[in-house]
# Entry
Amino acid sequence: MSKMVPVPGRGIVPERDIDKSPILECIDLGIKFGGLAAVDNFNLTIGRTEIAGLIGPNGAGKTTVFNLLTKVYQPTRGTILLDGVDTNSMTTAQVNRSGIARTFQNIRLFTALSVEDNVKVAMNNQMHYNMWSGVFRLPGYWKEEKVAHDRAMELLSFFGMQDLASARAGSLPYGAQRRLEIVRALATNPSLLLLDEPAAGMNPSETADLMEHIRMIRDTFHIAIMLIEHDMSLVMNVCEGICVLNFGHVIAKGTPAEIQANPTVIEAYLGKKKEA
Ligand SMILES: Nc1ncnc2c1ncn2[C@@H]1O[C@H](COP(=O)(O)OP(=O)(O)OP(=O)(O)O)[C@@H](O)[C@H]1O
# Structure
C-alpha cells in the first residue's frame, strides 16, 4: 500500500499518483428526490490508481453516488470530471465508454448465457465488425471473435475461472457469480471500477480472496477502484483513502487509521455497528 500524502485542493493522494492528474473529481455534487437531498455537497477526488472506499450507514447515499457517477441519475447540482472531462451531457453508455464500469449490489448477469458469453457481451462496446460481417460470418467477424475469446479467457484466468468458461452463468455458486460480475466490468476496459458491496454474501475465505484480487486488479490494470462495502475488515485492509457519508453528507475523509480514530465516524457509524 502506497503512503497517502496531502495535496492542496485534492485531499490525500497515494504517493505513486502525485504526479498524475486525478481520474475522478466530484465538485459540490448533489441530488434531490422531492424534498430529500439524498446526496449534498459531495466533494471527492480519486487518484489514478487509488483504491478508495465509500462507507456509511444504510441509506447514507452511497449507491446514489454510484448512480450519479454512472449517470443513472442526473445530478441536481455540481460537476463530475472523469479524467478531466465534464460528464454532464453524457449518457450511462457514454460514461462507460469513457472509462467508468460498475458492479451492482444485486448480481446482474445473463444467467442463461455461458460465462464466456457474459464477458463477451460486456466487451460489445469495443467490437468493430459491421452487421454484414456478423450475418455472413465474414473473415472480419472471425478475427474479432478470436480476439474477444482470447481476451475473455485472459480476464477469466485472472480470477481462476477459465475452466468455467462454458458453464451457464446462473449455475455458478454465489461467490463465483460475484467474481464474474467484476470480470464483466473489467471487460469494458475501465479506468475507474466501481464495486457496490462486492463482498456481500461471501464467506470469509471468499472475502479474503476478493481483497487479494482487488489489489491485483489495481496493480495489473493500473486503474482506480472505488468500493462501497459494509465489511469493515475489507475496507480497512484494502482501501487507501476512505470517504464517509451520513445522511447524504460527507462527514469524514482520510486514511483507514484516521477514519477508525475519527469520533464523528465512530458515533455515526462504527460505534453503532459495534453496539449492534
Ligand atoms: N430513486 C429514488 N427516489 C427516491 N429516493 C431515493 C431514490 N434513490 C435513493 N433514494 C433515497 O436516497 C437515500 C440514499 O439511498 P442510497 O440507496 O444511496 O443509500 P446507501 O447508502 O446506498 O444505503 P445501503 O447501504 O442501504 O445500500 C435513501 O433515503 C433512499 O431512500
The chain has two domains: 1-99+190-276, 108-187. The two ends are 31 Å apart (CA to CA).
